[in-house]
Design a protein that fits this description.
Elements lengths: L5 E10 L3 H12 L6 E14 L2 E14 L2
Antiparallel strand pairs: 1-3, 2-3
Length: about 70
């Protein structure tokens, strides 16, 4: 088995629809900058509230990609 090194970044995605969509948005944006994305781990989920209403879902991800 070949030794490998992976880089890890943290991202926060947002969506007006759901935490799942927020995570998908973060991964989609990351794929524009980073090659060979591997695993996304959900670290935290929260919502933004305005006047007693949820206006956005946010998902923080720890995302790994293959280096080199």
């Amino acid at each position: 088995m070949e030794d490998r090194v992976y880089q890890v970044i943290e991202l926060i995605g947002s969506s007006s629809d759901s935490w799942e969509r927020a995570a998908q948005n973060a991964v989609k944006e990351a794929s524009k900058t980073y090659d060979d994305l591997r695993v996304a781990e959900v670290v935290e989920m929260d919502v933004l509230i305005e006047n007693g209403n949820v206006i956005a879902f946010r998902t923080k991800l720890r995302l790994s990609y293959k280096q080199g």
